[in-house]
Here is the input.
Amino acid sequence: MTKLIPDPTPNVLVVNDDPGSLIGLVGLLNQWEHDLGFETFSARSGEEALRHVLKHEFAVILLDVNMPGMSGFETAEAIHSRHASSLTPIIFVTAYSADEMNRLKGYEQGAVDYLFTPIVPEILRAKLSVFVALAKSKLAVSRQAEALDQQTRKLTAANELLQREISKRQIAEEKNKTTEAFLAMLGHELRNPLSAISSAATLLGLDGISMQKATTAKEIIQRQSGQLTRIVDDLLDLSRVMSGRIVLAKRALDLGALVRNCVDTLQISGRAESYRIELDVEPVFIHADPARMEQVVVNLIDNALKYTPLGGRIEISLKPLGEAVFFTVRDNGVGMSAELLPRIFDVFVQGERTLDRPQGGLGIGLSLVQQLVSQHEGEVNASSEGLGLGSELTVRLPRSTVQPTLADELPGATSQTKCRVLLIEDNVDGRDIMAMRLAALGHQVFTAEDGPRGIEIAERERPDVVLLDIGLPEMDGFAVARALRSNPATCDLKLVALTGYGLEEDRIRSLEAGFDMHLVKPVDQDRLTRALARNVAGHHASR
Here is the structure.
């Protein structure tokens, strides 16, 4: 409910230097204050009148003409010289009939009328009522204007708030659409390799399957498992990018050799077999994280494969120029529209989102590329002549003069040393299949489903290597590792962490807990073999 504010009361000022005349006029006005609705102020000089005018607004001023010091005419001139009171009505009060020249002077000073003494009360009341009524109307209009202005400000603020809410809702709706499209694409990308793996596994279980078909089924499982691993890695990297948790392990790197290895891997895997790959790569050196830089290269080539029809051409070049290195992937595929180009590095943004593309993808590869390149003090740019005219993506990185040394991260990759392995893993399927893989390699395998059981077996069997899952229930892998290291009977065992967490901080935490090595699931056969060979050699040497 709106609160009613009472109407302001107009003011009337009486100015006269004669005390008797002033008292008489004020007393007369006081009789009419209630009926006409005004308040009376008085002053005995022009200076005092001006002080009142500085503090209040007046509906009319009754101003004596003949005053010592500042006359009525001078007082009127001073009142009207002030902008705030320039339109205040003034009625001159005089004891004699002014001649025409004096009246003209009074009107020039802003007088609206004259009153002659002795004053006729009825005439004074009539004149006052007119000016008080005009002042009330003016005040009412001013109040209405102020109320309208306040309402306008409220409506403007409400409209701005509404516009912000509409904008937020539009952004939220766009994000929802983007997220829904991403989830649909994720479902499609996961189901494709899962379907192939399931079918291949079913085929292997059939009686009478030929050796050739069994080999093909195994290749399918390996290839599609790799695709699933890439999808999971992309999702994890997306989370790391968005939370700013990617930690780089930079070293001197031959980017040319890395690009050639990536292309060879894509061709061997069959992912690029239906395309014409043109490679123009020079040996150039940078200071970078090899794993992250491989991710940049593969994602850019994958992007070209994804949006280029089968049989298309993909040009890959790597050139040094001054203090920079330029890696470019150019294709003759579907291209990009002018509307898409500014958003091509945004998360979940893709070109044509059809589900029948020759290659899959989640729409996060280029966003990851931009983040990783930025962390390497570089930049990536995309260009296209338009739809159907292909695309070009170029990465610029700082060039390094330091060349890498020839060192393998896991020496002894070809060693076929047989060893005794304790596998501590709570997932039944994961434990069984890893045990079978290890046994197939000729190793003696002991298994445990939880930490306490694993510690018991480790004390009794003294294995060469302990493959220890981090995500164990109740007593996790870090606690198990610390327990084994604190026990004199097991303190010298080689401990290898098996985990789905692959951040640099995760590796550091593993080392601090007492692990000798940190392996990220899923572990391919070659890496598993090298890890065992390295740790078995170290264990035997320590004995």
Remarks:
- Confidence is low (pLDDT under 50) at residues 1-6, 352-362, 406-415.
